[in-house]
Amino acid sequence: MLTQVGIVGAGPAGLVLSHLLARDGIESVVLESRDRDYVERRVRAGVLEQGTVDLLKATGVGARLEREGLVHHGIELRFEGQAHRIALSELTGGRAITVYGQQEVVKDLIAARLAAGGRIEFEAAAVGVDGLEEDAPVVRYRQGGQERQLRCDVVAACDGSHGVGRESIPAGAIALYETEYPVAWLGILAKVAPSTEELIYSYSQGGFALHSMRSPTISRLYVQCRPDDDPASWPDERVWSELHARLAMPGFALAEGPILEKGITAMRSLVVEPMQYRRLYLAGDAAHIVPATGAKGLNLAVNDVRILADALVEWYRSGRDDLLRGYSAACLRRVWRVQHFSWWMTQMLHRFEGESEFDHRLRLSQLRYVCSSRAAATTLAENYVGLETV
Ligand code: FAD
Ligand code: DHB
C-alpha cells in the first residue's frame, strides 16, 4: 500500500490528524490494531476543552457533540464536607468545558472519515517502521495473518502509550522524562442519573473521588485506589460505599445504579523529547502521558495533531519544512504546561501512602487558597478550560 501520510492508531490523535489532512487534500491511511467495535466502545476520557470543541465544530465533526455534549461553566472542589465552586466561565472570559465521551468523539470521526472515502484499516497491527534513515518510511503491519507494508512520505505514530512508533526510533535519539504516582483510579460507568450538575473533585480522609457523567442517565465516577489493585478486589458494594464516604457532605445524596463498566487506570507522567525522528512524528499518548486528574490526555493529543497537520500542509504545498522541523518544540510548550497542571491537581487532590499529617494540612491550605482567592481560582480555571496561548 502507498499513501502520503501513514498514521498508526485510530484513537483521537490518529483520527483527527487524518480528518484535518483530508480537508487539505492530503491522503492518509490509518492502521488500527483493534476492530472498529472495540475502539468505538472503549470508555476513557470525557472532558473536552474549549479549544478541542472549537476545532471539532469548525472542521465539520461537531454536530452530534453540539447536540449531546454537556456544556459546563463550573466545577466543584469538595473537601472537609464543604462544596466550593470554581466558576470556570466567569474566570476565563466565557470559556467552558464540554462533557462528551471520548468514544463518542472516536465514533464521529470514524463515521466522517469513512463517509469521505478515508482509509482506516482495522485489525491491522503495526509491528515496526523501517526506512527512516533513507527518508523512505515503510510501516510493517500484520493483518489477516499476513505481514504487509505501507509506504509513505511521513509516518505519524498516534499509537498510544504502548505503541510501536516510539520503539522504531534509535536509542539515544530521544530522551524520556517520567514520574509515577503511588495512586491509581478505579473508574466506573453506572446506569443512573448523575447526582450532580457539575463535576465534583473531592478530597477526603479516605482519598480522592470524582463524580462525572456522560448523559442525563449515565454517571461516570472514579475513586482513588492502589496502583496494584485488581478490579476484582473492588466489588460493586465496595465501590459505592467508598464513593458515599468520599463524596459525603450535608445535604448531598449519591444515587446508585447498575455498574456497566469498571477499570483501573494508573497515574503517571511521561514526556518524550523530541517528539520526532527524521520523518516519524509522535503525537498524543505515544509522545506523552499525563495523570487523569487534569482531564487533559485527549485534549493534548488533539493539540499535537493540529500542529502536525498545519506543518504537513505547509510542506506539501510549498516544500518548506520549517514548521515540520519545529513540530516538537511547538507541541512541547503546551505538553509541559499541561504536565505541570496535571501534576499539581494530582498532588492537591490525593492522599499518598506514608505521608504525614503535615502534608495533609499543606494540601488543605492549598485547597482553601484555590477556593478563596480569585487569582488562585483563575489559575485552576484557565488551565482546566485550556490556555489559549502557552
Ligand atoms: P489512544 O486513544 O490510546 O489511541 C491509540 C490507538 O492506537 C488505539 O486505538 C490503539 O488500539 C492503537 N494502536 C496501539 N498500538 C498499535 C499498533 N501497533 N498498530 C496499530 N494500532 C495500534 N484521560 C482523561 O483525561 N481522563 C480519563 O479518565 C482517562 N482515562 C483513561 C483510561 C485508560 C485505560 C487509558 C489508557 C487512558 C485514559 N485517559 C484518560 C487518557 C486519554 O484517553 C488519552 O490521553 C487519549 O486516548 C490519547 O489519545 P491517542 O489517540 O493519543 O491514543
Ligand atoms: C473525567 C475524567 C477525568 O480524568 C477528569 O479529570 C474529569 C472527568 C471523565 O471521564 O468524565
In the predicted model, the low-confidence regions spanning at least 5 consecutive residues are none
Give the helix level as a range of percent. 25-40%
Shape designation: globular
Mean pLDDT: 97
Count of DSSP helices? 12
Q: Main sheet?
A: 8 strands, mixed
Ends distance: 39 Å
**Pairing-aware structural class of the strands and helices?**
alpha+beta
Strand proportion, as a percent range, falls in 25-35%
Strand order of the largest sheet: 6-5-14-15-16-13-17-20
Bound compounds: flavin-adenine dinucleotide, 3,4-dihydroxybenzoic acid
Strands, total number: 20
Rg value: 21 Å
Report on this model:
By secondary structure, the chain is of the alpha+beta class. The chain has helices spanning 12-23, 36-41, 50-58, 63-68, 88-91, 102-115, 236-247, 297-318, 322-325, 327-349, 357-372, 374-385, and strands at residues 5-8, 28-31, 47-48, 70-72, 75-79, 82-86, 97-99, 119-121, 124-130, 138-143, 146-151, 154-157, 175-190, 200-204, 207-215, 218-225, 259-273, 276-277, 280-282, 288-289. The chain has an eight-stranded mixed sheet. Helix 1 (12-23) packs parallel to helix 6 (102-115), helix 1 (12-23) runs parallel beside helix 8 (297-318) and helix 11 packs across helix 12 (374-385). The longest helix is centred in the C-terminal third of the chain and has 23 residues, at 327-349. 3,4-dihydroxybenzoic acid (DHB) is lined by residues 45-47, 199, 210, 212, 220, 292-293, 295.
